[in-house]
Each structure stands twice: as structure tokens, then as C-alpha cells.
Amino acid sequence: MTSPDRIRREFPGISTRAWEHPADRTALVTLRSLSGFDVVLRTLSGLLAERQHRLLYLATAVRVDDKQFRNIHHLREDCARILDARTKPEMFVLQDPNANAFTIGMDQPFIVLTTGLLDLLDREELRFVVGHELGHALSGHAVYRTMLMHLMRLAAGIGWVPIGGWALRAIIAALMEWSRKSELSGDRAGLLCGQDVDASVRVHMKLAGGSRVDQMSHAAFLQQADDYDKSGDLRDGVLKLLNLELQTHPFSVLRAAELRRWITSGDYDRILDGRYPTRDQDKNARISDQVKEAARSYKQTFDQSEDPLVRTVRNLGKDMGSAVGTVGQEVSDTVSKIGKRFNEWRDGPKEG
Predict the structure, then answer these.
(1) 38 Cβ partners below 8 Å, 6+ apart?
(2) pLDDT digits (tens, 9 = 90+) for 122-139
(3) Widest CA span of the chain, in angstroms?
(4) How far apart are CA 185 and CA 24, in angstroms?
(5) pLDDT tens digits, residue range 58-116?
């Protein structure tokens, strides 16, 4: 069942903090602290003229408006109204058989949907995706996603740059880690726009298994995430980390499970009830509070995880007489040290 427009709730003055995953915000804080990050940002901003960047899609894709792809245009209008967006990013439809959507742009972000995605999803599923991308735009993610896109092209085209290569590698790795966390935020924004839990799960089911949803099961699909989390031995736990290393997006099954976790936490219902942070409160939000919130989130995930690697670390802490209750502080301390560690990696291996 889909939610009719007449009962879809709107959120006047809602702050992006309402849907941003705490790890997303903390990863951005860490990313901005990296040595050389500001230089890369300024350099790319100078090289990528915003107008030239947009003109590329204006010439090669179809702009969404009330005359072209009107159904997508209406979804954008609905999502902007629900999230009380002050601006409505331009949208383009690009001929590409791969199902994809992204939000890019250094000054004025715009959204691109591929024809493969339009062919794969129904209207309510598309509403979730449009809301997801609008969430990226409103959260200011487009600048960093544009950076990652161009840095990855640079790395793929000429390999790791010899001069400052370690610094570039560290920045790309940090951007990828942030990108994975930002997708969780986008999924929350998408759910707030659509307010259709089934449709949000179907999007991830289709991204994982294609259009044959009649051959799939919501419950079984989500069960896969539980099986993934707790199956295997210590080696499998390490392999999971390695599988994620070069991914800009979390795996589809795990994204659906993370969205389920957010719903069961009660945060989604609280927002639907009108209890959410507003933009006029943003000036009072402190970074230290965000880091603490991320630490609490990591600690909860750590305590509840059945992953063999996490379980081993948790048990090791008990065996050594360390209280698992200190994990939140450990994570908070680790976050503050990530930038320093990346700087050390920049210098490369030392001769000993």
C-alpha cells in the first residue's frame, strides 16, 4: 500500500539534523580536519566552474520540469514541500541502463537520475529516491560528493599521484567512508518524503535483485542482514571490512536493515508526530554534542552486533577486564585521532 498525498505529513522548518545519521556528521567533521583537504577543495572549486559543470548535463541529458518528465517534476515538488526546502535543485534524466541517482555541484547542486532507475522503480519507489537525493542537497553533501567523483576519476585515470599521493589516498579513503555514512542520511530523508516503509525496502530489494519483487520477500530480505551480521568466523569479519573498503555506498541489504533500525528506535515516529529539530535551532547545535551522539550510536551498534570480528573484540575487552561501557568514549577519542593518523599515512612507510 502507498500513502496518499492527502495524509502525507509535512515538516515546516525541519532541520537537516532530523535525518542526518550521527556518523555522517562526525565523518564530515573528521574529513574537514584532514591536512590538505582545504587545499584540494579550493583547487577543485577553481578548476570546476559551476556553470561549465551544469552545462555538461544540460547538453547531454533531459532537464526535468513541467514539460519534460512531469511525473518526476511533481515528485520533486512534493518532496520539497514535505521537507520545507528553501530551494529546489535542478534535476536531469540521463540515458544510462544502469540504475543510479546522484547529487553533485559545487555551488548550486543538481540531481541526476538515470533511465535505468526510472525503468526499475514504480512511482512511490521513485519518490523515495527523489527524497533521498533532495536530502543530500539540503544537507550540503553535493560538494563533497563532487570532490569524490573527480578525485576517483583522477586516481583511475593516472593512478595514484606520485607527489602527495599518500595525502590524496587518505582524502579519498576518508571521502568514501563519509559517503557510505551519508547514504544512510539520504535514506532517512527519502523515507520522510515518501512515508511508505514498504516502498523504501523495495528500492533496496530492486537495487540488489532487480525488478522481480514478486520473487522476493521483505522479511527474508531483511533477515539476510541479520544473517550477514552474525554469520561466519573471525576471518569473515575481516573480509566484510575489506569488501567495504572501496565502496562509496553501503550494501543494499544493510541499508534496508539500517533504515529498519532507525524506525524501530522511535526517531521516525517522533518526526511524524512533529517532534524534530528546526532550522532556527541549528545555530545552537554544537559539534561536540554531535560527536557524542555518534559515539553513542557506535556503542549501541557495537553492543548489539553479532559480527564475528566485533564479537571477538568485545569478548577480548571482557577478558582483559575492560568494561564494554567505555566503548562510546573509545570511539569518540578515535574519531578525534583519525585526522592525525591520515596525516601520518601521507608521509608513507618509514625506513627502519
Answers:
(1) 32
(2) 999 999 999 999 999 998
(3) 69
(4) 7
(5) 999 999 999 999 999 999 999 999 999 988 999 999 999 999 999 988 778 899 999 99
Please report the sign of the dihedral spanned by the C-alpha atoms of residue 126, residue 127, residue 131, residue 137.
positive
Phi, psi of 22 (to 5 degrees): -55, -35
- Which residues have C-beta within 8 Å of that of residue 261, sequence separation ≥ 6? none
Of residues 345, 350, 348, 349, the one with CA closest to residue 171: 345
Which residues are within 8 A (CB) of 45 and not within 5 positions of it... i.e. 6 or more apart?
106
Please tell me the distance from the alpha carbon of residue 236 to that of residue 84, in angstroms, as a whole number: 44
Cell 575481516 maps to which residue? 238
Half-sphere exposure of residue 94, counting CA atoms within 13 Å on the CB side?
19
Give the span between the Cα atoms of 254 and 228, in whole angstroms. 9
Alpha-carbon gap, residue 151 to 129, rounded angstroms: 25
CA distances for 335 relative to 8, 31, 72, 89, 167, angstroms: 38, 10, 39, 32, 18
